[in-house]
Amino acid sequence: MEKPVAASGAGDVLLGIDVGGTFTDAVLLAAGRTFRVKLLTTADQSEGVIAAALLAMRHAGIVPESVDWFAHGMTTATNALLERKGALTASVTTAGFRDILEIGRQNRPRLYDLCPQRPSPLITGEMRLVVQERVTPEGEVVPLAREEMERVAAKLKEMGPEAVAVCLLFSFLDPSHEQALGGLLGRELPGAHISLSSQILPQFREYERFSTTAVDAYLTPVVDRYLRKLARRGKKAGLPEPAIMQSSGGVLPLHMAAGRAAPLLLSGPAAGVVGAIFASAMSSVDNLIAFDMGGTSTDVTLARNGSAELTDEREIGGFPVALPMVDVHTIGAGGGSIARVDAGGALRVGPESAGADPGPACYGQGGTGATVTDANLCLGYLGESLGDASGIRLHRGKAIIVMEQLAAELGISLEEAAVGIRQIVGAGMVKALRVISVERGYDPRQFVLVAFGGAGPMHGADLATDLGINKVLVPVGCGVLSALGMVAGDRRRDWVRTVLSPGGWDEKTLQAAFDQMERYAAAEMKCPHFVRQADLRYKGQSHELTVNVELPYNRARLSDAFEQAHENAYGFSSRGEDVELVNVRLAAVIRSQRFRKELIAAGAGPAGKQATAAGRRSAFFGGQWLVAQIWRRENLGGEEVAGPAVIEEDEATTVVPPGWIAQLDDSGNMWLSSI
Questions:
Q1: CB 262 within 8 A of CB 212
Q2: Which pTM value belongs to this model?
Q3: Residue whose C-alpha is closest to residue 583's, from 533, 626, 538, 629
Q4: Which pLDDT tens digit goes with each residue over 113-133?
Q5: Structural domain boundaries enclosing 367
Q6: CATH (domain of 509)
Q7: SS3 call for 242
Q8: For the packed helices 456-467 and 414-435, what is the interaxial angle rounded to 10 degrees?
Q9: Disulfide check for 399: which of 374, 525, 537, 640 has CB 3.0–4.6 Å away?
Q10: pLDDT digits (tens, 9 = 90+) for 433-475
C-alpha cells in the first residue's frame, strides 16, 4: 500500500469511483501519487461509494475537503432496467398509436425460433393513454385542445404514476404539442417525472424514439433518488458533488445527469473504455481491443485511432435505446460466474454470478457454487489474498471443496474441471471479441488486446492466443481502470436532429441545422469543442451510416466520406446514386485538463531497477503442474519475466503462461508478448 502523503493544494486531488456488480473501485490522485481501493459492492451502492472514497483518502492522508474533482460511474440504471425495478410509468401518445411499444419491430432476435418471447413492455396497457392531436411533416393537422390535455391529466392523476413518457407523432419536427402537454402535466402532476421524446431523442422512427423515452421515464425516478442520496452522503462527508459518467464516455454534472437516466445505462463500461484508451496512449497504442473482465460480467470494445466506436443502435434488456453510447458488447462472464452441470451432463458457466454477497466459495462468506475465481485459485493462479486494496482473504480449502463436488458430478479430476471452467468462459469471451472485430470487418491481429478489470489479466494471454494476437497490454492500475476512466473522462453532451432531406440538401442545410444545436450547447456549456456528424444513406435504403462532418461544410466531400464508409461496411459503393441526408449530430466536448498522464504511473515500479521474484508456487499449465515464479508488479524492473509466472498487485493478478514474457515499459504499463 502507498504511504500517506499530504495534498499539495487545489486542483491536485482527483477522485474517481466505479460501482460494479461485485466490486466498487476507487482511484485517488493526490500530489502526484496514486491510491487505489477495491471493496465489495454494497446493497446500497451510495454507502459503498462513500466508504471507498473515505478509505482511499485515509490511505492518502488527506481530508475530504481537499478533493477538487469527484467523478462516478454506476450500475443503478442498468440494474433497474434488467431487473424490471423502475418507476410506475404511464405514457401519452397520439390517438391510434397507443400500442407502438408493444408492437415494436418485426425482426426476430432468433431467426428460427417459432415462438419468440419478447420482453413485456415497461408500460402496461392500462397505463398507456392517447390524446387527440396530429402533426405531419407538412404541419399541424389536428390541434391539441386545452380540454384534451386536461382530460389526460385528470386520468393520470387517478393512476398516480411516478413518471410519464410523452411520445407524439412527428414531435421531432414540431415539438409544440409535446411541450404544451408536458408543461401542463408538470403543473398537474408535480411529483411525477415527465420525459418528452422531443427532448430525449428528437429523431425519426417512432418505435425507437418511443422506446428510448419510455426507458428514460421508467428509470429516471430511480436514478434521481440514488444520485440525490449519494450527493447528500457525499456532502455530509465533505466531498464535492460528483460528476456522472454517461454511456457516451463523457461526464455531466450531477444536477444534469439526475434528470435524464437513459444516457447513463452504460456508465461503468464506458468509463472502462475511456481508461483503456487513456492508459494505452501512454504506450503509443491507438488501435486496441479493450477487454474488461470483472466479477460479474465482461465488456469488450474496439477502439481505432485513439477513439472508441460509438453506436446509437443498441438494445438493453430487449429495449431499444437510440442514444449515443460506447459500442460495448457485454456477456455474463466474470470471476463470480457460477459453474454447473446441465440436464444433459454438460458443464456450463454463467451467466448467474455469485456477486458480492455471498461471492465465490473461496471468499468464505457462504458461497456454495464453484466459480471462475475458485477455479483460478485451485489452479495456482491466485494466492491467498486479492490484495490489500480489497482486504479479501481467499480460502483455498473452500474452493477445493466446491471444485471437487463439481468434478465428481462430471466424473473428472479437479484439475480437468477447473481447466474446463476456464475454457468455457474463455470461449464465450472469444466469441464476444469476434463480434466486435471479425464480424465488423476488422482483423483482431491488427490490434493490441488491452486486458483489465480484476480478472482480465488472468485470462488475457489465453484469449490473445485464440485470436492470433501476440501482444497484450496490462495497464497500470488495471484492476481499477474504470475508476481511472471516471477521472480521465471529458465533459460531454450530445444532440441529434432529424433533417430528412431526400436530395435537395446543401451546405446551407447543414449550416442551419448545426447552428441551432450549437446554440443549445452554448447555453449549457462554456467554450466546448464541437464534434459534428451526419447520418447519410442512398435513396431507397432503410438505414444510415454516420460520418464525420468537417469544416467548411461541403456536400461533395461529405458524400465521398459516406461512399467510403459504405464500401468499408458492405464491400461496395454506388457512386453517382442520390445520397440522402437524414440526421445531423453534435457532440459538445470540454476536454479534460484535470491531471497529467504521469500521475497514474506512480508506484508502478521504475523500469531498469533490479527486481527479484517474491516466491514460487505450483500452477497448472498445459495439463501439468509447473513451478511458477511469483512477482509483485510494483517490484518489477525493466527485465523480461518469462512464463510460467504470476504477477500480483493489490487489485488484479496477471498470469504469464509458458511461451509468453512480461515486461514493464517506461510508462509503467506491462506488455505480455508471445515468444
A1: yes
A2: 0.89
A3: 533
A4: 888 778 899 999 999 999 999
A5: 337-424
A6: 3.30.1490
A7: coil
A8: 70
A9: 374
A10: 999 999 888 999 999 999 999 899 999 999 999 999 999 999 9
